[in-house]
Amino acid sequence: MPRASLRGARLVGADLSGANLRGADLTGADLSRAQLRGADLREVAIEGASLVGATLDGANLSGVPLKDVSLEGASLREARLTRSDLQGSQLARADLTNADLTGAVLRDIDLTTTRLQQATLTEADLSRATMRETDLRGAIKRDARLYLADLA
Prior knowledge:
Blueprint: no helix or strand
């Protein structure tokens, strides 16, 4: 389904595991609890989409602008989010264990109780992020920017 137009689609609980959605338009789509394991989501338009409780383990979201996307409670284990822009997204209670967030922009977002164990945060921008009870055990944070981040 590369370049498919799914703008505003209601795909709650859909199984799209391994799907090639590269370049698809998912703007405003409801993908709550959807299964997107190993999906290719590079170059998607996804602003304002809901992925609450979705499973995106091993998905490729490299370079995707995920602004204002709701990912609360989502599983993104081993997902590739290199150079992705997550400003304004909701990631509270998400699981990003072993995710690659190299160069990702996570400014001003809520990472409360988010799991970032073993995640790669090299050169990631976490300025002003709320990181209360965030699990960063084993995370690689080389050259990560944490300016005014709330780590309480």
